[in-house]
Amino acid sequence: MRMFNHAKTYGGKYKYGEVKNIISNGEFDHEIELASGEKIQTRSVVIATGMVERIPESIKGIHEFEHKGVSYCVICDGPLFKGKNIAIIGGGNAAIEEAQFAAQFANHVYVFVRTEKDLIADKISVEQLKQKENVTLLINAEINELIGSSNVEKVIATINGESKEMDIEGVFPYIGQVPVSAFAKSLGITDERGYIPTDESMETKVKGIYAIGDIRKKDIRQIATAASDGTIVGKILANRL
């Protein structure tokens, strides 16, 4: 937010909206289509949409109960479930770390890991989690359905092949992230996983369209590398003005 306000003080303009498509009419001639129907003409486009948590589509009710018991951030929304039973879905470091945090305020934390192979978190972190009295690590377990009137009240899960109904009011999936790039696919600039390859100047194969941060195809995704990407393309565009 501080950087956003800083940009505004220097005359930066902003617009809220959802980008549905980007059309390239030629070199440095592009059109951005918004969900509202508005179209914006521009010489250059910088894509910095990053990634979002992967949604476990196989769980019935996962969309209906979003923000009504389903969240993708324990640090943000976890305290709302103080004294309640919650479920963490996933076996990576993010899932285990969030489960450790949730154990501080939840009545009980159930960690659902689909298979033994999916438990890929650091062994030390897993062992530390197992020591917590209000945490249960469930292997060969997955949630199938969410039940509730206005908010999640129960879940139906399969544990070691057996169906079980459990009193759980908060569900937090941590099964990886996916790049936000669907709007750019018509340009042909995304790879098979949805990331956007660029050259060293952050430019894609379409002249005037750049990608920076986690959306960009690269080996390391950290705040430092994202800031570096932004600095490079910012300098290039400033010189072009």
| Residue-averaged pLDDT | 95
CATH class value of the largest domain:
Alpha Beta
Task: Report the end-to-end length measured between terminal Cα atoms.
Answer: 25 Å
Low-confidence stretches: none
| Integer-rounded radius of gyration | 21 Å
The CATH topology annotation of the largest domain reads as FAD/NAD(P)-binding domain
The assigned CATH architecture of the largest domain is: 3-Layer(bba) Sandwich
Order of helices and strands: HEEEEEHEHEHEEEEEEEH
CATH superfamily of the largest domain: FAD/NAD(P)-binding domain
Largest sheet: 4 strands, parallel
Question: Can you give the helix content as a percent range?
Answer: 10-25%
What does this structure look like?
With 241 residues, the protein is α/β, with parallel strands linked by helices. The chain has two domains: 115 residues, FAD/NAD(P)-binding domain (3-Layer(bba) Sandwich), CATH 3.50.50; 119 residues, 3-Layer(bba) Sandwich (FAD/NAD(P)-binding domain), CATH 3.50.50. Helices cover 20% and strands 28% of the residues. The chain has five helices and 14 strands. The strands form five sheets. The chain has a four-stranded parallel beta sheet with strand order 8-7-6-12, with helices on one face. A three-stranded antiparallel beta sheet has the order 1-2-3, with no helix packed on it. α3 runs parallel beside α4. The longest helix has 18 residues. It starts with a helix and ends with a helix. The mean pLDDT is 95.
